Amino acid sequence: MTLLAAITNPTAAAGTGAGAQPIVLTPGVAPPAATSSALPTPIPPSAWSLAPADLTLPKAASFLAASLTSCSSLPRFRAVVASFFSALSQSLSLPPPPQVVPKAIHALAPYFPATVASLVASKAASLADHEVLFALVESRLLPHPPPDLISSLSDNDRADLVCAVLRQAADLRSSEILAALRLFLSPPSEKAYDAMMEVKRRWKDAAVVAVNKSREKGAGRKKMVDATARQAALLLMMGHDGFSSPEVCLHYLFASGNVDSVVLGAAVAELDGGEVVRLMRYLKEWIVKYGRFPEAQPFPEAVAMFGLEQCDSVPSFGAVVRALGVLLDNHFSHLVLNADVREALMAAEVIVRELAAEAESSGPILDLLRRLQQDK
To answer: What top-level branch of life does the organism fall under (predicted)?
Structure first.
């Protein structure tokens, strides 16, 4: 029976049983015979093979690691790294890398092995090759920085690079947090303070850009862009105004979501009295800011929309409160007995209580709004 006959005469096509005729799509052509198995025909091993592994890249990485161990001069260091970049490009069939090592790092960042990047960063820090270090950090190749990197940068008064490393670090050790805290709370030299002033200047420039973006008007301008620009301007204003240059650098540490409270507590416990007081005043300033602008919150969307990376480095209110709790747990007696800090501590307590009460009263309203959105 053909398909047309089955459609025009469904009664005849409805017959079942052994005598039922199959539907033939092409008249005059017999239906294919049923196969005994639905499995595909196996391919013999002799019909396929894998390409042999390219040993160029592993050999180049091993040579680089061995050479970095004995490398003691900056020209030799850059020559060894450039040689590895050439091998990496040839192995992956990439265009030849730039001759300048920092530019080559930017070009090959997606293909740069993380373990190799850590070795290069450690040697660059020991040789004070800050251009290579900055290229590695800017390319986000150091989510797990070498153990001695932040300490080495702190000893060399490179607060700007410390901020850049803190911004992308996925995990931080207590020794690294302590080195960063002591660098920012007690700047060791004018060179370090100048580097911190440069960091604060970037925050000011970013705030000016955000304010100008929020003032722009146009026919095709979207409301979401305006709201993002205003939120970015508010965040950058909060992070810039009222903070000294070293305190602005502290933003990068406390804005990191990968700082564990236990690890932070181990670092905070090592601070001396003056550093504890300065850290307390820094955290109190943030609490005052969030008391004035409770609607403010970290806004990473501004980073992608406007390129304002500082918006991703604003400590949240929760991070500030957790840090304050860690500080009180480790230095409660010192803070309470210090008359100058006691007033700031009491003022911070009042603001926290007010914010907590406001959050508690707003809870039912927020819950109602969420339920209304779910019912739509």
So the answer is: Eukaryota
